[in-house]
Amino acid sequence: MNPSHSWLSDSIDVPPRDALSAIKAGATAIDVREPAEFAAAAIPGAINVPLGRIQQQGADALRLAGIDVDSAMSVVMVCRSGARSGIACQHLLDSLDGRARNLAGGVIAWQSAGFPLTPGGRGQI
């Protein structure tokens, strides 16, 4: 395990507290829900890249959304429950050199842990 990515474990699923720590440390939150879902409530600072785009374009979908996948410290994939983001994470693991992780339980678990959601991911954590 790379020491600069100490929050990255062997599992792709990370609990909300670890995801929050990673995002605060510079990880990029990528919300793979559809735009209307993202607009309603998202993790502050998250970038919306729907799962369908990732499935069609792979890491290029992230690049087209303005994410520098070559220099990104790591990414936390997010959806409502963790299912879609888990699929996206699997699609991107190789192209991101293992730096992709899935928010276990999605925004449901995030909100249950007391962490903020904002319309369209406005603001920063």
Any key phrases for this structure?
five-stranded parallel beta sheet, Oxidized Rhodanese, domain 1, 125 residues, alpha/beta, single chain
Account of the 3D structure:
The chain is an alpha/beta fold and 125 residues long. It has a single domain (11-121), classed as Oxidized Rhodanese, domain 1, CATH 3.40.250.10. Helix content is 36%, strand content 13%. It has 6 helices and 5 strands, in the order E-H-E-H-E-H-H-E-H-E-H. The chain has helices at residues 16-24, 35-40, 51-57, 59-64, 83-92, 106-112; strands at residues 13-14, 28-31, 47-48, 75-78, 100-103. The protein has a 5-stranded parallel β-sheet with strand order 1-5-4-2-3. Helix 2 links the parallel strand 2 and strand 3. The chain is globular, with a radius of gyration of 13 Å. It starts with 12 loop residues before the first strand and ends in a 13-residue tail after the last helix. 39% of the residues are buried.
Number of helices: 6
What's the story with the biggest beta sheet? 5 strands, parallel
What would you report as the Rg, rounded to the nearest angstrom? 13 Å
Largest beta sheet: strand ordering? 1-5-4-2-3
Oligomer, anyone? single chain
Query: Shape from CA axes?
Result: globular
**CATH class, please?**
Alpha Beta
The total beta strand count reads 5
- Helix fraction? 25-40%
Q: Supply the helix-strand structural class.
A: alpha/beta
Low-confidence stretches: 1-7
Distance linking N and C termini: 26 Å
CATH fold node name: Oxidized Rhodanese, domain 1
CATH superfamily: Rhodanese-like domain
Number of domains: 1
**Portion in beta strands:** 5-15%
H/E series: EHEHEHHEHEH
**CATH-derived architecture:** 3-Layer(aba) Sandwich
Question: What is the arithmetic mean of pLDDT?
Answer: 92
